[in-house]
Design brief:
It is a single chain. With 329 residues, the protein is α/β, with parallel strands linked by helices. The protein has 2 domains: 242 residues, TIM Barrel, CATH 3.20.20; 76 residues, no CATH class. It has an 8-stranded parallel beta sheet with strand order 1-8-7-6-5-4-3-2. Strand 9 and strand 10 form a beta hairpin.
Length: 329
């Protein structure tokens, strides 16, 4: 058993959290991670109505009696609107979920402080995924319960400040009094040990969880992550003000070429559409859509179960921390 602010807050065995992943973080996968001792993730953006989202929360609870997180991403989207964001928050409060990971615009600004108060009254723990000290400080002032410190290494949408995990975690940990979770570049027990040494209370991973047996993606995708190395991701989307990191593939090379010549936003949208990503996960067509994974793919060497992965990480972390103490004499 680990004992950190995160394990104490949620009553979980390991301070290991699954990050949000569109189309993948649904009830069965979320429950598998929670049942294995971590914190699973149910990504709200997979659901477009009150009824389907509420049903997903309840289905997850049928599959696990352990805590799990819900992700609500407040970023520009063709499919998900501001009304969706408010609906997700309201349903989470009504269902009294264990915790929410907000990413993108802070919920207090995107939805309003009344929604923060709604969650706090319901006992929901709220975290904000940030890439800078200034955003972490804001979240603490507003009343968030914790911070996800997301370095530039992460897949998805890292902040354009481009600060690495190695610097960002200690900077945020020394700047706020609420728990900090390290995000970006973590895929094994060495990363967990490093995060704890840097002042974090846990880690959040997404790319590493894709390459697990319980993740519902095509086997081609899982094996591609095993094959690829840390230098085989690219940053894209700078020209449209929505920086992303994804696996280096033909589609992202095309996106970068359009951006390089100053192509229009309308040219990029068909290549970046969420439905294409959904199809790629299902069919295993690696070059068909942007697969948002981080540099941690260089540390992925196999496809274990979620339980095997977290047990191994815990063992590795203890070994690494023990070696560090020994090195100090």
């Amino acid at each position: 058993m680990f004992k950190t602010a995160i394990t104490e807050m949620f009553g979980v065995k390991y301070p290991i959290i699954c990050g949000a992943m569109m189309w993948l973080c649904k009830p069965s996968f979320c429950a598998a991670i929670s049942n294995a001792g971590g914190l699973g993730n149910l990504t709200a953006g997979n659901y477009e109505t009150d009824n389907t989202f509420r049903a997903a929360i309840r289905e997850t609870r049928k599959l696990t009696d352990k805590p799990f997180m819900v992700n609500i991403t407040m970023l520009p989207s063709v499919r998900i609107t501001a009304d969706h964001h408010k609906m997700y928050i309201r349903v989470c409060a009504e269902e009294k979920v264990d915790g929410i990971e907000f990413s993108g615009t802070p919920a207090d600004k995107a939805a309003g402080m009344e929604y923060i108060e709604m969650l706090k009254k319901a006992g929901v723990k709220i975290f904000h995924k940030v890439g800078s000290v200034r955003h972490a400080v804001h979240a603490e002032k507003v009343g968030y319960d914790g911070i996800y410190a997301a370095g530039i290494e992460e897949g998805g949408h890292p902040l354009s400040d481009d600060v690495t995990t190695m610097v960002l975690t200690p900077r945020i940990a020394e700047s706020v009094k609420i728990p900090v979770v390290t995000v970006g570049g973590v895929a094994d027990g060495r990363g967990l040990a490093a995060a704890l040494a840097l002042g974090a209370s846990g880690v959040m991973m997404a790319s590493r969880f894709v390459a697990t047996k319980e993740c519902d993606v095509h086997e081609n995708i899982k094996q591609e992550l095993v094959r690829r190395q840390e230098f085989e991701t690219v940053i894209y989307g700078k020209s449209i003000g929505l920086q992303g990191r994804g696996l280096k593939t033909k589609v992202l090379e095309e996106v970068l070429a359009i951006e390089e010549r100053g192509g229009a936003f309308e040219e990029l949208i068909p290549l970046l559409a969420g439905q294409k990503v959904k199809e790629a996960w299902e069919t295993g067509k690696v070059d068909y859509a942007p697969l948002m994974v981080g540099q941690s793919i260089g540390l992925i060497n196999d496809v274990p179960t979620c339980r095997e992965l977290m047990e191994r990480m815990a063992r590795e972390a203890r070994e690494q921390l023990s070696k560090a103490f020994q090195a100090c004499g």
